[in-house]
Design brief:
The complex is a heterodimer.
Chain A: H1 2-8, E1 15-17, H2 24-28, H3 36-42, E2 56-58, E3 69-76, E4 79-82, E5 89-90, E6 96-98, E7 102-105, E8 110-117, E9 124-129, E10 134-142, E11 147-155, E12 157-160, E13 168-172, E14 177-180, E15 185-189, E16 194-198, E17 203-207, E18 210-214, E19 218-222, E20 232-233, E21 240-242, E22 247-248, E23 254-256, E24 264-270, E25 278-284, E26 288-289, E27 293-297, E28 303-310, E29 323-326
Parallel strand pairs in A: 11-13, 22-29
Antiparallel strand pairs in A: 1-2, 3-6, 3-8, 4-5, 4-7, 7-10, 8-9, 9-12, 10-11, 12-15, 13-14, 14-17, 15-16, 16-19, 17-18, 19-20, 21-23, 23-26, 24-25, 24-28, 28-29
Chain B: E1 3-14, E2 17-27, E3 32-44, E4 47-58, E5 62-73, E6 84-91, E7 93-96, E8 99-100, E9 102-113, E10 120-131, E11 136-146, E12 177-178, E13 185-188, E14 194-197, H1 198-205, E15 211-216, E16 223-227, E17 231-232, E18 242-247, E19 253-256, E20 259-261, E21 268-273, E22 276-284, E23 287-295, E24 299-304, E25 311-314, H2 324-334, E26 342-346, H3 354-374, E27 382-385, H4 396-399, E28 401-406
Chain lengths: 332, 411
């Protein structure tokens, strides 16, 4: 029944993940333009019937809630864009992403997409896709009091940037749903489970009609048909040691402090200090990285790098402060 | 006639020996089974002595145990492409329910590299058993052998030379760089290590007798200049420039697409060039390397040369006479000295008289020094240490050696 409901709403725009204690009435109550009967009708619920925990509930939209379109705001390397009823085309910077479209990044390629944006507050929900990642945009919506984005993560890993204003982000995977209102979390599709890391704000993960709150600084997993796992505290990052912050990068030799219980580290490079323009991401099993080769696109200002710890369960922790490195040659 | 097919796995292997266990089944007219293991100690690079133990049931002899010392001799050096061949001989006894069984064994073993791996070998072993009845028996064992020793590195193919693009004009006398470009930045290498605009660079050049500098301008390829005067600077315009940074070692000589280029005195080559494939040849510190690189438009690419390696040339016990192989290895590093220097220090194993041992180590250092000089290295670029340090090691290859260290480690 639930699967049929989801399929029939494949191109709807505003979704709400039903959490513990939610009822049709409590969901409808803060929305001036929606009542419980409209929600029940849209979601094929009987009178008095309540949705189960973890259900993706479609919310009615009035005409003034124009369907939104996402945009590609950063792209390194290559990717593909498949719009509804169209063949895949190469992904390009600035490409429009209507609901129903699918964005995939290639190997060694990264993209950041801007999804629901609120013209009144200037708030927007940005999601960075790591390489070999595919997401489908199920819905984007802006209401007078809220906005929401619903994405299907088909493969790979995404990071939802911390939002400056309230915006609900629902990430649906084969295994369950991760939902948060303030961004600042990652979701990664693994072979057997979906992994969520709440970095800067709390999120909820839902599976098998069970909701689990994940406070900032914790990680959890959900596997298909199973309840979310117990939570794991995320490791702190290593402290960058070299190269010196703000120096020209003449020797590509990076080092950071060891972290107790860390099994490895993730090093990320970006041409923007907020890491919306990722250019290289590597996982390393030591407290230094001295690759034979490194190639970075020449930036407008500088590059930034940061380090995160990886624990024995595979959770990637909160990143370190960003470190600036400059071009060794003047490029004006 | 008895044939045995056995699977053996080495549990641990060191330069001195290994510990392995094996099991097998016999195949002859009536069948037989055995299982066992052995431990070994390497007493020479080519000689290893094993003690092998097996328990089994062989139709000719009944149930019993075998204890047999074996000696393995490698007639040739181990090779990276097909492995090593050992001759194996042993003398021992098998106590069985019917009395004495096997009394001797002679055979060979071949270790071949396992495909796709650096550390697993496949061993095929054949041999011959003698027993008190005068009957012979052939054995064959086949199995994976884990070997922690590293194989010789692969030899990189020599790259094809690329066309010349670097232009270094001859400087006339004067004290500044003259150019019609406005947005030029000039790199002053060690000890200044700074980029500066052309006007500042000219002010600094006016205070210097001579300087090697590099100049870049937006959209132009790098040029190196030895400035002794008013040098007219010609930079070639390139549509989309890429940057290349190569970390080498102090004392390396570097060629970019076949042309010698100056490297900062801390061993870092910086240049702007048009996109495409480039070859950076590095010679120095006893090694020779070619880096095939792609410079992409509007990208910065970093690459690094391999670290200079210390060479250990070994000697027999109580000897300071270099082998022909040792001389050959010294010749190879001497030909790749570049602008570096070498330090030579001898070592000694702890047996015997300390004073004589220290004199032996000094002789080994002198032998290494002499071989370097004979191979063409100027005497003033070889430092010989005649007072050896005591080395805590059990590896005879470290203890009976002349150790040659290049001076130009990059870090």
């Amino acid at each position: 029944m639930m699967v049929l409901t989801l399929l029939s709403l494949a191109f709807a725009n505003d979704f709400r993940v039903v959490g513990e204690g939610d009822t049709v009435e409590s969901i409808a109550e803060p929305m001036a333009d929606v009542d419980a009967a409209m929600i029940r009708a849209l979601n094929k619920l009987e009178d008095g019937e309540q949705p189960i925990i973890g259900m993706l509930l479609q919310l009615p939209e009035l005409d003034e809630h124009a369907h939104q379109t996402g945009y590609v705001i950063a792209l390194t390397g290559t990717g593909t864009l498949t719009e509804p009823s169209a063949a895949a085309s190469p992904l390009a910077l600035g490409a429009e992403l209507p609901a129903g479209s699918t964005v995939c990044t290639g190997t060694g390629s990264f993209a950041t997409i801007r999804l629901a944006a609120d013209g009144a507050t200037g708030g927007h929900d940005d999601v960075s896709l790591l390489d070999d990642t595919c997401v489908s945009i199920r819905g984007l919506s802006t209401r007078p009091t809220s906005r929401s984005t619903t994405l299907d993560l088909g493969q790979g890993s995404l990071s939802v940037r911390a939002a400056e204003s309230l915006g609900r982000m629902n990430i649906v995977t084969r295994d369950g749903i991760t939902t948060g209102e303030l961004g600042g979390f990652r979701v990664t599709l693994e072979e057997e489970a979906s992994r969520t890391e709440a970095l800067y704000a709390p999120v909820a993960i839902l599976g098998a009609q069970t909701e689990r709150e994940v406070p900032a600084g914790f990680g959890g997993r959900v596997s298909k048909g199973e309840k979310p796992t117990e939570l794991t505290p995320l490791l702190p990052p290593g402290k960058p040691i070299r190269p010196a912050n703000g120096s020209p990068l003449r020797r590509h030799d990076f080092a950071w402090t060891a972290v107790d219980r860390a099994l490895g580290f993730r090093i990320e490079f970006s041409t923007a200090p907020d890491f919306s323009e990722l250019v290289v991401v590597e996982e390393i099993g030591a407290v230094s990285w001295k690759p034979d080769f490194l190639a970075l696109p020449q930036p407008a200002r500088a590059w930034w790098w940061r380090i995160s710890s990886i624990d024995r369960l595979g959770y990637v922790g909160i990143p370190s402060d960003e470190q600036q490195i400059n071009e060794p040659l003047p490029t004006h | 006639m008895l044939a045995l097919l056995a699977i053996s796995t080495v549990l641990a292997a060191t330069p001195h020996g290994d510990l392995h266990v094996g099991s097998g089944v016999g195949a002859d007219g009536s069948g037989g089974v055995s299982a066992g293991g052995s431990v070994g100690v390497r007493v020479h690079p080519r000689v290893r002595i094993d003690l092998r133990g097996d328990a089994g049931l062989l139709p000719q002899y009944g149930a019993g145990v075998l204890l047999r010392p074996e000696i393995r001799y490698s007639p040739t050096e181990p090779r990276a492409d097909w492995g090593r061949f050992d001759l194996v001989g042993g003398l021992g006894g098998r106590a069985t329910t019917t009395g004495l069984g096997e009394v001797g064994f002679l055979g060979g073993a071949l270790q071949v590299p396992f495909p796709g791996s650096r550390s697993w070998d496949l061993r095929v072993e054949g041999g011959y058993l003698f027993d008190h009845t005068g009957l012979g028996a052939a054995t064959l064992s086949l199995g994976p052998v884990f070997d922690v020793r590293r194989r010789a590195p692969e030899v990189l193919p020599e790259p094809e030379p690329e066309p010349v693009i670097a232009v270094v004009p001859d400087p006339p006398p004067g004290s500044s760089i003259v150019t019609d470009l406005t947005d030029v930045e000039v790199w002053f290498p060690h000890p200044i290590c700074r980029w500066m605009p052309l006007d500042q660079a000219n002010e600094l050049l006016a205070t210097m007798d001579e300087a090697d500098v590099q100049a870049v301008a937006p959209g132009h390829r790098s040029a190196w200049l030895n400035v002794r005067g008013a040098t007219p600077l010609e930079l070639q315009a390139v549509s989309k420039v890429g940057s290349l940074v190569v970390v080498t070692a102090l004392g390396d000589q570097v060629e970019f697409n076949g042309h010698t280029v100056s490297v900062n005195e801390d061993g870092v080559l910086l240049l702007a060039t048009e996109p495409g494939s480039v070859v950076v040849d590095i010679v120095g510190n006893g090694r020779r390397q070619s880096l095939d690189l792609i410079v992409a438009p509007e990208m910065t690419t970093w690459a690094r040369a391999s670290e200079p390696q210390t060479l250990h040339v070994t000697f027999p016990a109580d000897s300071a006479v270099l082998s022909s192989r040792g001389r050959q290895r010294i010749r190879e590093i001497a030909e790749a000295i570049g602008d570096a220097r070498f330090k030579v220090e001898g070592s000694y194993s702890p047996e015997g008289n300390e004073e004589e041992n220290r004199a032996l180590a000094a002789d080994r250092a002198r032998a290494g020094q002499q071989a370097l000089i004979e191979a063409g290295v100027p005497e003033e670029r070889v430092e010989v240490i005649l007072e050896p340090k005591k080395i805590e090691s059990t590896d005879w290859r470290v203890l009976r050696a002349a150790v040659i260290t290049p001076s130009g480690l990059s870090q």
